[in-house]
Each structure stands twice: as structure tokens, then as C-alpha cells.
Amino acid sequence: MSALISLDNVTFQYENADDYALRDLTVSIEANEWVAILGRNGSGKSTFGRLLNGLHLPSKGTVMVSGMSTKNESELWSIRNVVGMVFQNPEHQFVATTVRDDLAFGLENLGVSREIMEERITKYASLVGIAHLLESEPHRLSGGQKQRVAIAGIMAMEPEVIVFDEATSMLDPIGRKEVMETIQMLHQRGVTIISITHDMDEAVLASRLLLFHEGRLALEGRPEELFSKKERLTELGLSLPFSVELQHELEEEGITLRKTCLSESELMNELWTLYSAK
Q: Which residues contact residue 74 at a Cβ distance below 8 angstroms, ignoring those fewer than 6 apart?
């Protein structure tokens, strides 16, 4: 079975830029994956995200989404129905004076009937926990609530894939927790997740990591594989999740665990197992 999204030898250069934002990128993403995109500022992460639904078109190479090429202008609308995007600042996605009308906006553009529109608004507002906010003004909500409104608006159009471009970076810890719980719920419901993030503790939730450096794919693999490569990640200017960093410090003190622990609870369980066996 072919990949849901595939990039074949893709290079992208912004107009009037001296260098390439991405170069020679070949990668595929399967349905129902959760892929986290990592890298320093300017590494090409957001450019990659925008290539996936045709907001950017490759300077060279091909981006295929569900069998459709982003270079085919007649297929762009269909591609954007497959791949939705949630950006860093949700206010950039608000177009209406109430949450209800904002959720309806994308559906109106799709030509969805009023009956189905109301069903979807109710369904997805409830799903992400904003049903009580439908008559509220989006701009008066908290950061976490705003992002959940943006997510509900995308979900109402029922895409197969959602790209989250630094969607939690402007949020406080409570808002970040709300949004991450929503993303986890969406993935459990079968939505393919692509999360562009600087937060390593968010990245560990993904099933696969793509690490970009200076416009190229530098590393790829499961979180436990990549986060075991401390020296290489340091060379690329990236930090480790707290639990993994602590594990490396323990190893320097002679305490070796059986596996890379991606969460604090996992680390505590490993330490408990280690010392209870003594």
C-alpha cells in the first residue's frame, strides 16, 4: 500500500533567497502515524509543513498526498481537504465573531448542507471540549481554548491529516496540556498527526521523529532511538527530554537502565525495578 504522503527528492527555495530552505528531501508518512518534526529555527520544519498541503510548491521534486500531486492546481482543493493545518497563532485562523460561526466557515466553503454543518459543529465542539463556548467570541478565549477552537474548525472538515505547526509554543502549561490531550485523542481516533515542535517532551509522544538541520533530513527514527544519540543531538543544537537527560546523568554516575525512558513515570518505574531487584 502506498504512503498517504510522500516527498520525492523535494527542494524548496523562497523567492529572492540565496539558499534553499529544504533540499533533496525524500520521506513518506503512513496513515495514522504521529510524526514529530524537530530542528533548530531555520532548519526547514515549517517549510516542510506548508509543502504538505500546497501552501508552498516544491522548486524541484514531487509532493504526493493521497495519490494527488501538489503541483497539479486542479487537485489543490482536494489536497487541502485531506491535510488540515493548525498554526502557532490561532487568531490568524479566526474569521467570525462567534465560535459557532467560525467552525461553520470552512464547512460553508466546502458546500456542506446546513443540517450536516450543525451536526459536525456539535460533534467536534463536544469532542475537543468547547461546546460551552460556541456563542463566545474567539478573541476573548484563553490561549488553550483558542487553539482548541482552531482544531475543532479543522476537524469539522474531517481531514485525514492535521499538521500542527508549533501549535503549543505560545501557550501556558495549562493550555499546552489541553492541546496535547486533544492531539492525543485525535490520533487515537485515527487522524494522522504531524507535529512541528521545539518541545522535546511533546516529541516523545510521536511514533516517529524527523530531525531537520540546515534544510536537510539529518536523523529519522523512533523517539527511543533518536534520544539515545545524545552527542549527535547536541551537535545539531537540540536538547533532550527531561527524563532522557536525567537518565544520561544517572548513567554517568554508573546507574545503567535497560532502555531509554521517554517519560518521568517510565524512568521512575525502571529505577524501582532496578533497585527492588537488588
A: none
